[in-house]
Amino acid sequence: MAISNTQVIFDNLYGIFTYLAFLVGIIVFALMAYLIIRYRAKKSSSDPEDTPRLGRIPTSRGHGRNVLVTVTLSTFLLAVLIITSFAAVDTLFPNNPPNATWCYSIAAYNQTQTAGQSCPRLDVTGHQFYWVFTYPGARSYTNFFRVPVNTTVVLDVTSADVFHDFGIIQFKIKTDAIKGRTNTIWFIPYQTGTYTIQCFELCGTGHVGMIATLAVMNVTAFQSWYGSAK
Amino acid sequence: MSQDILPPRIRRWLFTTNHKEVGILYLVTALFFFVAAGLLALTMRTQLSVPDNHVLTETLYNQFVTVHGLLMIFWVLSPFAFGFANYIIPLQIGARDLAFPRLNAMSYWFYLFSGVAIIMSFIFGAPDLGWTLYSPQTAIQFSPSIGLNVGAAALILITVSITMSSVNFLVTMFKMRAPGMKLRHMPVFPWAILVTIFMMLYAFPSFLAAVLLLYVDRAFGTFYFSSIQGGALLWDNVFWFFGHPEVYIVLFPAIGLIADVIPTFTRRPLYGAKYVIGSMIAAAIISFIVWGHHMFVTGIGLTSTKLYTVTTIAVSLPFDVMVIAMIETLIKARIKLKAAALFALGAIALFVIGGITGVYLASVALDHALRGTYFVVAHFHYIMVGGSIMGLIAGLYYWFPKFTGRMYNETVAKIHFVVSFIGFNILYFPMFLLLDMPRRIQTYAPDTGWGSLNSLATLGGFIFGGAQVLLFLNLFLSQRKGLPSGPNPWDGWTLEWSLPSPPPAHDFDTIPTIAEDGTYHFGDSPGLPNGAGYPNGSKIGNGYSHSHLEGLSAWPIVVAFAAFIFFLGLTIGQPNNPTTPVTFQPFWPLIADGAILGVIALYGYSRERFSVHEETRTESWPFREVPNVKLGIWTFLGAEVIFFGVLIGAYFFVRTNSPTWPEIGSLFDIRNGFAMTLVLLTSSLTAIMALVSAKIGSRNGLISSLLATFGLGVAFLYIKSTEWVYLGTHGVFSVASGLPATSYFITTGTHGVHVFAGMLMTLYLLVNSLKGRYLKGDHQAIEHFGLYWHFVDIVWVFLFPLFYLI
């Protein structure tokens, strides 16, 4: 189910990684199991000719060729993973995030919408042990915030005290909240509903309760909430 | 010092310097901490088994999380491996002991006392912010507990222990191999330890510097890690520069061990041994350029994260080669599935899963979802428990007959493997599926849906933990009642199997030589005189008649105890202001006790006549002409370079992040700095003159040069202290008045302490040279002092322009 653009990107990439992981894992484990069964010592058999014996340093064996083949194959697989990762990260965390559009439905921002400009970013500040979300005009809420569905939301995340980490669990997106630094993340929610925000860096006694809620609303509901809740 | 008041058994274990006994001490202590840390983990698993559980309070849970991590990483994994290294490596390379036996004992006692300190921290409120100790939470206003200070003392002590022991092993492996044994002749286990030591030497100084700066922040109210300019990212950088190599430091010994166990039980030589060793070296080098993957979501920028993604994914290639080589060894083999082999093969399988999931975390895109979740916990436990602990347990079964001369119960050992392996996977595999659950949380709500997987993991935890009872019972009973094993029960090829089990105190009657064709020779005859069936240590040849009560020294434990008292004094003082603490008062009585005892013990240590076979033998490139002590000092100085590098790096970091910085010359007089530079450079010259005088045998020249060196040291510290007093009394500039001041005082202060230490050495040398020592052939001590002194001077040559001129 598509919950947000970030979750879709994550699921796709995670799928590719997991597919290759199982492929490699199954080959390796099958090979190990086969070899262990096939070459298990039998009473009747005797040691191979080159068995290492006390009194002499074993002769070295092994072909550089095999190492080269292994490394080349792995490099090929890993290159796939690097390229797909880079494509994902370019979308998820570009140096300049896309224009925010969450405010377009609100009357005060008509100008912004017609000019195709970015809505203001929302500020997120971690405190021991709660989150504060600030909309334009210094309207701030503790431990919850709301955005309209199918719009682009850009968050500037920071901390007022210690090292926190801001994660919207279902959206598969996360960034550190560090005092003196601002880390930006963005997402487009696809489904209305409530989502869980939790702190992902141990920040003291109280960390376990550092949980907030994101409500994704349909546009009209958001409009009336934003208009009324001043 | 009178040692005879104690009964021989106790004396033997407290004062031993024999590598085998020190090895056993390491193993037993590491296993003790393994049980302690495991019990903490089981308590945490109980707490997490169902949602909304409250067996542990959140504070206690956080303390358990932190101490469990610290114990396992610092006090279990490495010491476990170094217990084997202590016992086995001298045997495998044909040496009768490590290069510096007393230093080795001292490393152990530092390790033990550091462990006592970390356990003690529970009395004062143990560290509760994760083993990674992220700043600024470590700042005193967020963590006013003394427990964190005691934890810092423990970390400093164990870093000292590790540094001493890495110098010791490095010198041993380069200088004391049997004649004819080239580096490439060494089995893989010593190779893995060698690579590990190099990583330790370059990673731990960074950690030491970080912990030192943290301590200074907490004790003197400075701002390295609590300010925005330094803060979280400075800690992240210096911590993870150490932290990632540390992962391989705890892993490589187990890999090396597995690579030696597998050929023994498959009856074939390791496939591509030289590629395995080459891969280890490659992975060790790459491990120093991947630390940014621990900082993917700190906001270090798209380009940096991509670079770190590539380096981190690339580090999986050498591990590929290692795993494939082990698997290829099985082809056309004759595999005997003894317990050691089962654990070795099992460790590889689990390591493969840990490695593959590591690639997920190397991808910056996936890391944005997986960071800080149970996926990470699962991944690194597959590496550290699945790879390292399982591998080390293979070593325990493999070498148990060598340690004790007795066999363990094979059936119980096999059951131990099966139950451990199944329990392990029930414990950790569900955590991969908990990829939404934050790690290090004390509890979770029922509606998260995390309950059933957690219950499963807890069940697995108790199965895995319970299985270890079999291990301890089996080994404990078998060392008393097991069947005699004989010298070589596994038909292994490495040199330790040529000795009786357990080997006699002096190890080898005759040191083997390795001929061009790779055969060992003992004395004139080729073959295996030592191991070929002598009853346990009955034949003592070549004039060696060491019993286990020879080669005892009381000083290592005393020095370590003094250091323990000293660091405890530095850390258990009360906060200066109980309501809003800014700094801690040191507890002076303990500091003074520790310092006095330390000076006495070090004096006793240096005066003790101790020469248990400290012979230097073969060496090939690159240290052919370098004696043991000198190589040790060079190695130590290499670690010092990293240490000062981090201090200077931290200075650069805070300076470039500060919007403003005082103008040149506005803080301190450039002329002072210039004068100090001249004084120190001149003292390098006098140190050289002292060496020349010693070499040509001029006693007066030696004494006057040493006096001049000492005097110039005094002059340097005098100018420095007037500068410090001036800055302090004029109020502009105290250690806690801002980052320019902090970085100046701490960096030059640390250098000043090094100068002071050098002057103490000069005094010691002066006293002895007045008695007519060090002349002609006896000049080594002067040369070693010179190396240290020149290093200290060179550091100043960097500090002068950095602080005074730019």
- Average pLDDT metric of chain B: 89
Strand order of the largest sheet of chain A: 3-2-1-5-8
Q: Report the CATH architecture of the largest domain in chain A.
A: Sandwich
Determine the mean pLDDT of chain A.
Answer: 93
| CATH domain fold name of the largest domain in chain B | Cytochrome C Oxidase, Chain A
Secondary structure: helix percent of chain B? 55-70%
Low-confidence stretches of chain A: none
- What does the radius of gyration of chain B come to? 27 Å
Strand and helix order of chain B: HHHHHHHHHHHHHHHEEEHHHHHHH
Number of strands of chain A: 10
Counting structural domains of chain A, the number is 2
Uncertain parts of chain B: 529-548, 612-622
Structural domain tally of chain B: 2
Beta strand % of chain B: under 5%
Kindly describe this structure:
- The complex is a heterodimer of chains A (230) and B (806).
- Chain A has 230 residues and is α+β, with helices and mostly antiparallel strands.
- Chain A has two domains: 5-41 and 62-92, no CATH class; 107-228, Cupredoxins -  blue copper proteins (Immunoglobulin-like), CATH 2.60.40.
- Chain A has helices at 5-38, 64-92, 110-114, 219-228; strands spanning 122-127, 130-135, 139-142, 144-148, 153-159, 164-168, 173-177, 183-187, 193-199, 211-217.
- In chain A, helix 1 packs antiparallel against helix 2 (64-92).
- The relative contact order of chain A is 0.15.
- The mean pLDDT of chain A is 93.
- Chain B has 806 residues and is mainly alpha-helical.
- Chain B has two domains: 16-498, Up-down Bundle (Cytochrome C Oxidase, Chain A), CATH 1.20.210.10; 660-806, Cytochrome c oxidase, subunit III, four-helix bundle (Four Helix Bundle (Hemerythrin (Met), subunit A), Up-down Bundle).
- Chain B has a three-stranded antiparallel beta sheet, with no helix packed on it.
- In chain B, a hairpin with a 5-residue loop joins strand 1 and strand 2.
- In chain B, helix 3 (58-93) runs antiparallel to helix 4, helix 3 (58-93) packs across helix 13 and helix 21 packs antiparallel against helix 22 (780-805).
- The longest helix of chain B is centred in the first third of the chain and has 36 residues, at 58-93.
